[in-house]
Design a protein that fits this description.
2 domains; ATP-sensitive inward rectifier potassium channel 1 isoform X2; voltage-gated channel; elongated; ion channel; about 30% helix; cell membrane; transmembrane helix; alpha+beta; Immunoglobulin-like
């Protein structure tokens, strides 16, 4: 009992203070910061204003949305007030009874703002209207109408594009909390479980991984976040996955794998981050999305496998129990990949003979010991 409490205390308190820095969080966000970026380079973001607006957080986007409309209404309200002021249509000028104003019923800045709002959003109450008396007012009406359509199209399009981004679809694809290492098909494999929480499929799904670690080249150069390709497959390959139910993907730890020289005892002392990517096309929108997560050495369990989660009911339906999605079961597993392959080589040598090049056959002449 005391050992379990000690393990829980170390995991939840001491472990949190000693958490490793990771490039990709569990939910796929990248933990990276750009510093000393030149001012000229920052202007490039305004050149590609559409992508910049789409990448903004919702609070900033809604601020721009409200400011764009309120600002344009107030700006054109000032222009309409200026037209009425120049043409002396305001009550303070005491226009004559037969005076024809540029815009009917503009009595001040407030009424000019209301007319600007009605014009840009095409409300058209019919109380305030432009007359044919002023060409300037007609031109301003046309200009505000065109600019209002542009602002409306851009801002509403940006809101719709952000809502329909495939990034939201990626949140319904989840990875297991831990990765496990155990035998599969007679080979030592690193296994990860991934599930699609929607019934709609991801078409053309492709899964792969990158191992990030710090390496030192033979020339003495230190490369931080050096990337090593990690191939993940299922039984049918890693292309065009039939992603209707949770899949267990695995990486075979062979002589070419970066995990080949790791062992159960040395794994927690390793310094790496395994980033897993899943690319696919959303069936309903045909938009491409990417889901990613990462695993640090503490999240890789050696000698475990995932508990089964797919069963068949009496009615003939397949049932997926997500209670066992990240649940692991301890199994007998070789101490290291090298041990497994050495054991296989030893068993193979026992089944076949070998010639001994140091063996020399010498002929011995028989003597007749019966002679007297």
């Amino acid at each position: 009992m005391f050992k379990h409490l000690q393990k829980w205390f170390v995991t939840h308190f001491l472990g949190r203070s000693a958490q490793r820095a990771r490039l990709v969080s569990k939910d796929g966000r990248c933990n990276i910061e750009f510093g000393n970026v030149e001012a000229q380079s920052r202007l490039i973001f305004f050149v590609d204003i559409w992508t910049t607006v789409l990448d903004l957080k919702w609070r900033y986007k809604m601020t721009i949305f409200i400011t764009a409309f309120l600002g344009s209404w107030f700006f054109f309200g000032l222009l309409w007030y200026a037209v009425a002021y120049i043409h002396k249509d305001l009550p303070e000028f005491h226009p004559s009874a037969n005076h024809t104003p540029c815009v009917e019923h503009i009595n001040g800045l407030t009424s000019a703002f209301l007319f600007s709002l009605e014009t840009q959003v095409t409300i058209g109450y019919g109380f305030r209207c432009v007359t044919e008396q002023c060409g300037t007012a007609i031109f301003l009406l046309i200009f505000q109408s065109i600019l209002g359509v542009i602002i409306n199209s851009f801002m509403c399009g940006a809101i719709l594009a952000k809502i329909s981004r495939p990034k939201q679809r990626a949140k319904t694809v989840t990875f297991s909390k831990h990765a496990v290492i155990s035998k599969r098909g007679g080979k030592l494999c690193l296994l990860i479980r991934v599930a699609n929480l929607r019934k709609s499929l991801l078409i053309g799904s492709h899964i792969y991984g990158k191992l990030l670690k710090t390496t030192i080249t033979p020339e003495g150069e230190t490369i931080i976040l050096d990337q090593i390709n990690i191939n993940f497959v299922v039984d049918a390959g890693n292309e065009n996955l039939f992603f209707i139910s949770p899949l267990t993907i695995y990486h075979v730890i062979d002589h070419t794998s970066p995990f080949f020289h790791m062992a159960a005892e040395t794994l927690p002392q390793q310094d790496f981050e395994l980033v897993v990517f899943l690319d696919g096309t959303v069936e309903s929108t045909s938009a491409t999305c990417q889901v990613r997560t990462s695993y640090v050495p503490e999240e890789v369990l050696w000698g475990y496998r995932f508990a089964p989660m797919v069963s068949k009911t009496k009615e003939g339906k397949y049932r997926v129990d997500f209670h066992n999605f990240s649940k692991t079961v301890e199994v007998e597993t070789p101490h290291c990949a090298m041990c497994l392959y050495n054991e296989k080589d030893a068993q193979a040598r026992m089944k076949r003979g070998y010639d001994n090049p140091n063996f020399i056959l010498s002929e011995v002449s028989e003597t007749d010991d019966t002679k007297m």
